[in-house]
Design a protein that fits this description.
The protein is of the alpha+beta class. The protein is built from three helices and six strands; from the N terminus they run βββαβαβαβ. It has one domain. Strands 1, 2, 3, 4, 5 and 6 form a six-stranded mixed beta sheet that branches. It is globular, with a radius of gyration of 14 Å.
Length: 108
């Protein structure tokens, strides 16, 4: 799969928004390649919940060595923003970062 979801003409890649931004460039650079070749049109940032307390509980559980998730279990999350790929790439270039910090003009 070259992107996570399709919404009309948009090809969305979902990225978890950590405190220091959403990781775009990892070892494989797969997401970055998909963005550069035009397959991904938007980065959609998300987090586990609206409250910091609840968010930290899910972070602990999800990132642990044994997250103990069950099939069909619902994981509460909210979409923070949806940003065009070029805006994400421009920010990463300008800041010389491998992470994207959600731009306020694209917060949902």
């Amino acid at each position: 799969m070259e992107w996570d979801t399709t919404e009309g003409e948009d090809h969305n890649e979902f990225k978890y928004l950590a405190g220091n931004g959403a990781s775009i460039i990892n070892k494989s650079k797969y997401t970055l390649r998909q963005m550069l070749n035009g397959n991904v049109t938007h980065i959609v940032t998300w987090k586990f919940s609206e409250t910091d307390y609840y968010n930290s509980l899910w972070n602990e559980r999800f990132w642990s060595d044994d997250p103990d998730l069950e099939a069909g279990e619902q994981i509460p999350y909210i979409i923070v923003g949806k940003t065009p790929t070029m805006d994400v790439l421009n920010q990463m270039y300008e800041t010389k970062s491998e992470r994207y910090v959600q731009l306020p003009q694209f917060v949902l």
